[in-house]
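All the exercises in this workshop are built on plain-text protein records. Sequence and backbone structure share a record, each on its own labelled line. The structure tokens are whole numbers drawn from a learned vocabulary of backbone shapes. The record below serves as our worked example for the rest of this section.
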Amino acid sequence: MSDKKTASTLERLNILSSQNKCEVGNYVEDLRKMVSNIDKGELRKSSNFFKALGDENRLKMLYLLENRDMCVCELVAALELSQPTTSHHLKIIENAGLVERKKKGKWAFYGIRKPETSNYIKNAPL
């Protein structure tokens, strides 16, 4: 961090700490403790979840899968994506726990994993 940014940050912290009647060092230490207390596993899960929802193609897949389980080839045709790109997106939403993969012979079918996933999709602001 540059000296100007550091000074600006310290000034803001000083103002905040005076309002909270604590010293800047203690205040910063408290903030760092708050961050260190965040469960890293939960943070990673949340990050993967929001990453999965952060792409239009993945959202389209979830909208389609809300209706019924689909084969990868159906999603490829519907979304006009290549098979590797479709599989990549499916892997991301599968890793986020939003869909599950079912193997039937040579075919891989994907479906919504939990009913509450449909609620996320239906209640998403459009």
Remarks:
- The radius of gyration is 22 Å.
- The chain has a mean pLDDT of 83.
- The chain has two domains: 3-37, 42-122.
